[in-house]
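Quick illustration, no need to memorize.
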Amino acid sequence: MTTTELAQRTVPSAAWVAWIAWLCGASFYCYGFFQRVAPSVMVGDLMRDFGVSGAVLGNLTAFYFYAYAGLQIPVGVMVDRFGPRRMLTAAAILCTAGSWLFATADSLGLAYAGRALIGAGAGVAWIGTLQIAAFGFPARRFALLTGLTLLLGMAGGVGGQTPLAFVIGTAGWRPTLLGATVVAAVLALLIWGFVRTDAAPGGRAAHVDGGVLRGLVSVLATPQSWACAIFGAGMAVPVLAFAGLWGVPYMMEMYGLTRPTAAFTTTLMLVGWAIGAPVAGWISDHLGRRRAPMVVSSMAALATLAAALYLPGLPLLAVQGLLLVHGIFSGAMVLSFATARENNRPRVSATAVGFVNMAVMAMSAGFQPLIGWLLDLGWDGRLVDGGRVYAPATFKAALVTLLVAGVVACLAALMTRETRCRPVAGAD
């Protein structure tokens, strides 16, 4: 058999290995997103069991984001250095421990620790999966695979809304999260068994020769890294802060919905993300452009969110439609990762992605307790089953912050440099 014939026979096998490895990583990202939004359907339960206010609850759920965001740059550096297999496996083990600790916590401190461990583990999923995509597939597929990864994440987000609300209503939130502990353990075994990328090509040598700090400084010294990070964060905050926590109680109070129906309504934003992310990636790759899709999507996302929250007299169906469309346009936030990679050297690609993801998570972490604090300022003293209930006017005042994030995303998109879907001059 000739070398050419051998190569032709092994390519399909290599392609399947890459797809299976990507699916393992993306499934872990799906799990992490489930854990990210799960507290949104437990607001009353968590307030009652831990005896906390809206601000404290926002802080409790945000501990996921604090750990996630704080570790993004170190995780990016370590994925560049050690590869996704080891990092993703260790991360899934962390999620196993964190989910068990949160589900069994009998004090606020233990609950904080559990959420932090879950966030720390989940913080590896996105970067590790994109590293598999970057080095296991052709470069022209990166934005599409980024969108498909987010699509699976949204599947986890959808599972953490209406379906989770039904399960919690039947079994309770603690047994449900103990079940999630088992899922994380299974994912750790699958990742170790099927992901074969131990280090990115040239990654280990690049960091030994060039130095970890030098690679990080290179990313931070690139102005376009900051523009991409701000764009991604501004686009993600309305989904992560509203659908991820405060949207369910808002819809219940504003429209008199049951918790499952309110969860279904906010789930539509995640469904929109699931649709919009791969579509935005495909359109951008197909057009060979990044900046134009980012500008159009950010402006459309801002307009639809403002209409859904502040146009008076809208029926519920119209609001649901607007939230769905907002999610679709917000899916273009995945372009921030592709653009950040193209504006930095390939050997620090995971570090660049980590920096952008850090900004996304840090801004989301800040907005959840910020909105809770603003809600507490306007609280009229009402309690239902031990949990605080906020008036519609109070919600309206607090949620203005989401529009501010949308405006920031539009400005950042306008400042982004067009890369034409390839590394720009000086990025290598």
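Residues 20-415 form a domain with the Growth Hormone; Chain: A; fold (CATH 1.20.1250.20).
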